[in-house]
Specification:
Helix content: 40-55%
Mean pLDDT: 88
Number of domains: 1
Distance between the termini: 27 Å
Strand order of the largest sheet: 1-2-3-4-6-5
Radius of gyration: 15 Å
Low-confidence stretches: 1-5
Number of helices: 5
Order of helices and strands: HHEEEEHHEEH
Strand content: 15-25%
CATH topology: Aspartate Aminotransferase, domain 1
Shape: globular
Largest sheet: 6 strands, antiparallel
Length: 150
């Protein structure tokens, strides 16, 4: 059955996280992805899923925007892209308090770029991993507070 035009393209899949990480090229990105996966698992306590589009997601939530659009998305996650790792950290986007904490973490993180709810890192060697772990933990806590478990 074909998807309707409004159906989301990024949905959880049955693909193995371990197999996905092993397939990431180049090898350095795969090694970074394994480190990120271990960090996200430690911080979140969630079993990851591969979401369509090559995103490793931890936890899920549902919300409805003011427009009426319903969203089913991961609470946190990352995608080991060739150029940069994309980390999906929604807490700082959804909550003003979390956004202030995020700004302080970013000052200490190291080399990175940001988008609305994304953090872009070329390689893990460019950042302070302890700061990154604290940032993920603060973001996860904000998402748990804002969107209680589904």
């Amino acid at each position: 059955m074909a998807k309707a035009k409004d159906d989301p393209k990024t949905v959880p899949t049955a693909q193995s996280v371990e197999d996905f990480i092993a397939s990431v090229e180049p090898a350095a990105k795969s090694e970074d992805a394994a480190v990120l996966d271990a960090m996200f698992r430690k911080v979140t306590g969630a079993k990851p899923k591969i979401w369509a589009g090559g995103i490793i997601g931890y936890g899920e939530y549902r919300t409805t925007y003011a427009s009426g659009r319903e969203v089913h998305w991961m609470r946190a996650g990352f995608s080991p892209r060739k150029a940069k790792h994309s980390l999906y950290l929604q807490g700082g986007y959804c909550d003003d308090v979390a956004a202030k904490h995020r700004a302080r973490f970013l000052e200490k993180l190291g080399k990175h770029k940001t988008g609305a709810s994304c953090l872009y890192i070329n390689k893990l060697a460019d950042v302070d991993l302890a700061v990154l772990e604290q940032m993920i933990a603060a973001d996860w806590a904000a998402m748990q507070r804002i969107y209680p478990d589904i």
